[in-house]
Amino acid sequence: MPRRRIGFWYRLAAVICKPPLVVLIKRDWRGMENIPADGGFITAVNHNSHVDPLGYAHYQYNTGRVPRFLAKSGLFRKGFVGAAMRGTGQIPVYRESTDALSAFRAAIDAVERGECVAFYPEGTLTRDPDGWPMTGKTGAARVALQTKCPVVPVAQWGCNELLPPYAKKPHLLPRKTHQVLAGPPVDLSRFYDREMTAELLKEVTEVIMAAVTRQLEEIRGEQAPETPYDPRRERIEQRRRTQQAASQAAPSRTHGTQAEGQST
């Protein structure tokens, strides 16, 4: 299947965004040979800065295969940004609504038309204290199994040093280096003939995230934690600690009240 042309809006976005990116960050980009020359495919990318979608889009734009991102629906509604999002073919995500699944249908359609859809499987900026990829959500796995398209794991590092996660001010100096490494497509063929259950989607997601993490290990020259950071597990653990602290404090308060009554 042929590739989709880049188009006016993507070229306009490149004209606007590339000059400041070139000024602000150096580039160490590898693995472009693993980006398919033709046909639809998915990239699974780690997310550690509000700036990294621009840095990653710059990387893939230079391969000639522009990515279609899944983005919050509010960005599409008005103004120049909305026009650019629609014109570049980005895919709106309607969270907590009856249209929530439409993004996955649109992603499947885009892949079947021969386009690239870029997924941030973590769903948000990583909360891992050391910036490693967290556990992933199953959207990329669902589209991959439905279309049987190549899934290219991509890791990036450096935009998080320019603008750390959840920071409000960038660290402009010294000039940072944006490192990107795309690996070979993940082999998911052993999953294709199985029923698409929640357990299967979770297993495939773990395989994809492990591949992304391996690329980041190569970039950083370090080994990732054996168990990825899980925000859901952390929330449960935090509630458990809070409840435990409250239960330990309760006897102390009761004892203090009794002592005051006795002294009276």
Q: What is the number of beta strands?
A: 7
Rg, nearest Å: 22 Å
Assess the beta-strand content as a share of residues.
5-15%
Quaternary organisation of the protein chains: single chain
The residue ranges in which pLDDT falls below 50 over 5 or more consecutive positions are none
General form? globular
Q: In this structure, how is the largest beta sheet organized? A: 7 strands, mixed
List the helices and strands in order. HEEHEHEHEHEHEHH
End-to-end distance = 87 Å
Distinct helical segment count: 8
Strand order of the largest sheet: 1-7-6-2-5-3-4
Query: If you average the pLDDT, what whole number results?
Result: 88
> Percent helix among the residues?
40-55%
Backbone structural class: alpha/beta
Q: Can you describe this structure?
A:
The chain is an alpha/beta fold and 264 residues long. Helix content is 44%, strand content 14%. The chain contains 8 helices and 7 strands. The protein has helices spanning 8-24, 52-61, 79-87, 102-112, 139-147, 159-162, 198-220, 231-263; strands spanning 25-30, 41-45, 67-72, 91-93, 116-119, 151-157, 176-182. The chain has a 7-stranded mixed β-sheet, sandwiched between helices. Helix 5 (139-147) packs across helix 7. It is globular. The model has no long low-confidence stretch (mean pLDDT 88).
